[in-house]
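Internal ticket - ligand job 217, flavin mononucleotide:
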Amino acid sequence: MDIVATAKQRYTAKAYDTNRRIPDEVMQQIYEVIRNSPSSVNSQPWHFIVASTPEGKARLAKGVQGGYSFNESKVRDASHVILFCTRVDTEGGHLDRLLEQEDRDGRFADEAAKAGTAKGRLHFTNLHRYTLKDLPQWYEKQTYIALANAMTAAAAVGVDSTPMEGIDVAALDTELGLHEKGLSSLVLLALGYHAESDFNAKLPKSRLPQEQVFTFL
Ligand SMILES: Cc1cc2nc3c(=O)[nH]c(=O)nc-3n(C[C@H](O)[C@H](O)[C@H](O)COP(=O)(O)O)c2cc1C
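stdout (structure tokens):
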């Protein structure tokens, strides 16, 4: 894979071909890239809700009404739409769940190593919870890493995508009962194959030049 070609080929699709569906095995690859995303102290403060049926997409479309309706056709017409949800706190035993998974995955040579990881994770979690008071924002940053990986992975397997921050967070949280699970909506990602009518497919990519965005020491 030519990673630079993949990055340049990825663009934000604005209209989808309603007749084309992403094969399940391709979606499984994208799910695995998302799940394997890195996060600070391996916090994995995320949950992903996938809609690929008209009924499922109609539920997510409740988050792209009114002032967000410029995104509605992407949600309804794409093959799959993923809602990236982020944790707002550690309630529900999240830290314990992480630690036990790491134990099952063979990360700890002994109990001392396990206790050390728990202590380190709690230290940084409490730094953001009590000192910086930005735990939800810190968690959001981690979830955005998964979004970026999903978009690059999709491009690598020839799938078009649309990240959407233009969403009604409150409407989606209510529709999906996210608060009861300690979660909140963050961003939508439509996935599929662009339609002929997609004006953005024909436009050149525009980025600031390397000398403006990099400083080499
Ligand atoms: C976090 C994020 C949120 C975005 N939200 C929207 C959105 O709500 N609707 C939309 O059509 N495009 C959205 N975009 C697409 C950006 O406008 C687009 O990425 C940017 O103009 C660069 O163009 P490119 O993706 O085609 O390279 C979003 C992009 C990002 C990364």
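Auto-summary: The chain has a mean pLDDT of 98. The chain has one domain: 3-91+135-213.
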